[in-house]
Amino acid sequence: MTASYETRIRRVRQYIFDNPAGDLSLDALAGVAAMSRFHWHRVFHGMTGETCAQAVRRIRAHRAACWLVQTNWPLETIAARAGYDNAQSFARTFKAQFAMTPAAFRKAGRPDPLDPDFITGDPAMYPVEIRPAEDPFRIAALPHTGPYIEIGRTFEQVSTVFAARGLWPQGRGMIGLYYDDPDSVPEADLRSHAGIIVPEDFAMPEALEEIRVPSQRYAVATYTGPYAGLKGCYDWFFGSWLPASGEEAAEAPCMELYMNSPQETAPQDLVTKIFMPLRPASVTAA
């Protein structure tokens, strides 16, 4: 029975992501879940910890934030695609969520290449540490194909499995693995995994994939702010910090460790650790 409810919640969250401008009323979402309006709201709230209305507001704001950074669409177009009545309503609601206007968010998430701080890098903005060898660990995950900035929809699916089955006490943190260079691979073909770190004795649900990450040396940059601004940190990390560091990147996926939850943390206070795999120190020195 739990699996049935889990499937319904996953279906509804996917529907919200795919149809932010559609009818996302409680009645409509209950229809997607194939449950009565009254019972559906109680089930969704009880299993996810948020109301349907809260989920809709959060996901709509996330889709809008992604489009602000990914596209050159006018604000009016983004407002309509994200399900807001008009640009004024969009600006008001977005600012309440992200503590800045859509225009300011777009500028912050897409740094000006002519900005000296973007070219030289500002160490105070993105602190970096070298970790000699992270221990191997295990992840419960689902694959995501497409723009990295839209991996949130897959994290929603993984989170639903954990919430529905009472597995969160065994979780050790949410993590994303990113296998391709977004500047050289078409967005539609980008490969990644959304997952949760779990202990060795964790019983892997059949709905999720097991991924094992071997011991690896990393440079770790700390980024604070909305996820839509992560690309600016990556550009600085690879374009400024790496060439000046004397290090060489290894042939392994980058990872993002999410230190707090967007459901409980203001977007400007979200903390993400970006793990860049490095070649062994002896190889680099040679």
From TrEMBL:
SMART domains: AraC_E_bind, HTH_ARAC. Keywords: DNA-binding, Transcription, Transcription regulation. Residues 10-108 form the HTH araC/xylS-type domain. SUPFAM superfamilies: Homeodomain-like, Probable bacterial effector-binding domain. It holds the Pfam family HTH_18. It comes from the Bacteria. PANTHER family: TRANSCRIPTIONAL REGULATOR YGIV-RELATED. This is Helix-turn-helix domain-containing protein.
